[in-house]
Write a structure and sequence with these properties.
Blueprint (H helix, E strand, L loop, with lengths): L1 H21 L9 H4 L4 E14 L2 E12 L10 E5 L3 E11 L5 E5 L5 E4 L5 E4 L2 E5 L8 E11 L8 E2 L6 E11 L6 E6 L7 E5 L2 E9 L17 E6 L1 E4 L2 E4 L3 H13 L7 H10 L6 H15 L1 E2 L1 E3 L10 H7 L1 E2 L1 H14 L5 E5 L20 E8 L2 E5 L19 E6 L2 E6 L10 E9 L5 E9 L1 H11 L4 H12 L12
Parallel strand pairs: 1-11, 7-19, 18-20
Antiparallel strand pairs: 1-2, 2-9, 3-8, 4-5, 4-9, 6-8, 10-15, 11-14, 12-15, 13-14, 16-17, 21-22, 21-24, 22-23, 24-25, 26-27
Helix pairs in contact: 5-7, 6-7
């Protein structure tokens, strides 16, 4: 009987070994080189985007990610966004154990369905589906498959060869299919030194990369986007929230944006126009005029976000902002622009990426609705002045930390123009602390301190402390200086 068992055991071993080798979900199939410095491993990432027409786009995705430890859990979370023009047709996920055995299936009904409301938006029709898996052991693998359809074709989902620090990639592929009467624009960034396979044929472009090791995060590492291979695509025929457009470059795109989203929104009542002229009566210097208007806006209106339909791109009427006293970045920028135009100062709304942690420019190679914020450009005396119209605190012309030193799209009636915003050098970003220290006869230290800040340091402190009560300031300063008693505190702007 023992002799007969050996062939059976050997057969089972062969079957198991063959299954393990062919099982994409088995952790044993991950090369050791891809486990080094990795918290998660992308086993497969496939994205197929099909542009069916000027106002129809389908996105089919499949991702298989193995999470090696607790630090990789966030890589397994799934979030899909949708609105009235973007529909999640299908989504399903599967969880596998370390050996590739399926242990759970997640249906669409298992996802959390929530609003993207950020706490400061007055209106927002964006929603999301989200699933967060709570593991009972490591490693584990998650696979999710989704299909999304949208009528918005102005913004084509891009591709990043690696998604984040401490994540390796076994296989990642991105494909974009488009009608033959459509011309694509592409920006291929940071491809040097990476084994990226590119397929480019009529109506189709594809990128694929395999076996990329993880990049270990280190303090003060540069922006991830500056190092990782990525692509951005755009099309010359597009639709944005039901508004069709044609543009092959930034000048044409800016012209389309102005004609469809800015023009006819800057009208003001004669009473308001006259009020602005009275405020600037006798002032001929355009910069001094602009300062007066900017100060008026800061004291007159407040920021409230609006993210609904075309309102996510098209500003409220300037006359409505004037009446209501609030608006989002587009509305307040457009309103300030209208007030300045009323007193003869030319100004132009500007699309930009606003982010204090990442300095990201508009990509010059792809003319599309890039950016997440709007500021105002004043070309005066061959110089550019930039105004942050959502802030009731920022000094005139100061934009440090959030929108400084990056390319932005200035929108004019003649078309779009890429300009670079103000650059703050090291000497412009200072925090100087001066103090007079004395000891009394009991050894107690008394100090009078003055902190002088400029540039980004000034705006950081302004946003952190200005407007706080004396009690709040005492708590903040105690935390800042540690273990001291404060007798008096104040902030002078």
């Amino acid at each position: 009987m023992k002799i007969k068992k050996y062939p059976i055991i050997l057969l089972l071993f062969i079957i198991f070994s063959s299954y393990a080798q062919n099982n994409l979900f088995n952790v044993l199939n991950i090369p050791e080189s891809l486990k080094k410095d990795a918290n998660s491993v992308v086993r497969k990432n496939e994205v197929l985007i099909s542009m069916n027409s000027q106002n129809s786009l389908t996105i089919k995705s499949q991702q298989i990610i193995t999470v090696l430890n607790k630090l990789g859990d966030r890589a397994a979370q799934i979030t899909l966004y949708y609105d009235k023009r973007r529909t999640v047709k299908n989504v399903v996920a599967y969880i596998f154990d370390a050996f590739g055995k399926e242990i759970k299936k997640i249906k669409k009904s298992d996802f959390i369905d929530g609003s993207v409301s950020n706490g400061y938006s007055l209106f927002s029709d964006d929603r999301y589906l989200h699933y967060k898996y709570i593991p009972i052991s490591y490693p584990y693998t998650i696979q999710y498959i989704s299909e999304i359809k949208t009528s918005n074709t102005a913004q084509i989902q891009g591709w990043y060869a690696i998604g984040k620090y401490n994540q390796s990639v076994m296989d990642s592929k991105y494909t974009f299919e488009y009608p033959l009467d459509v011309t694509i624009q592409k920006a291929e960034n940071n491809f040097e030194g990476y084994p990226i396979k590119i397929t480019n044929e009529p109506g189709k472009i594809a990128y694929q990369v395999k076996n990329l090791p993880a990049i270990k995060y280190e303090p003060n590492s540069p922006s991830f986007l500056e190092m990782i291979p990525n692509i951005k695509l755009g099309v010359n025929k597009f639709s944005l929230e039901g508004v069709d457009g044609v543009a092959t470059n930034w000048k044409e795109f800016g012209k389309w944006y102005y004609n469809n989203l800015i023009q006819n929104t800057q009208g003001l009542s004669e009473n308001t126009k006259q009020k602005m002229k009275t405020l600037t009566l006798g002032v001929t210097d355009p910069i001094k005029k602009a300062k007066i208007i900017y100060n008026y806006v800061q004291n007159r209106v407040r920021y409230v976000s609006v993210q609904i339909g075309i309102g996510g791109y098209k500003p409220m009427l300037a006359s409505e902002v004037d009446y209501l006293g609030y608006g989002d970045c587009k509305a307040l920028t457009n309103y300030t622009c209208a007030l300045l135009n009323a007193v003869g100062v030319k100004a132009y709304p500007t699309l930009i990426y606003g982010d204090k942690d990442e300095n990201r420019s508009i990509d010059k190679k792809v003319a599309s609705p890039q950016g997440n914020h709007m500021i105002l450009n004043l070309p005066i005396n061959n110089k550019n002045i930039w105004l942050e119209c959502t802030s009731q605190k920022s000094p005139f012309g100061e934009i440090a930390s959030f929108t400084d030193d990056r390319d932005a799209l200035v929108i004019t009636p003649q078309g779009g123009e890429i300009k670079h915003t103000k650059i703050y050098k090291a000497k412009d970003n200072l925090q100087l602390t001066k103090g007079n220290l004395t000891f009394d006869e009991n050894g107690k230290l008394n100090a009078e301190l003055t902190i002088y800040s400029t540039g980004s340091q000034y705006l950081n402190h302004l946003n952190r402390y200005d407007g706080d009560s004396p009690k709040e300031l005492e708590i903040l300063f105690k935390k800042y200086f540690s273990n001291i008693n404060i007798n008096k505190e104040s902030i002078v702007l």
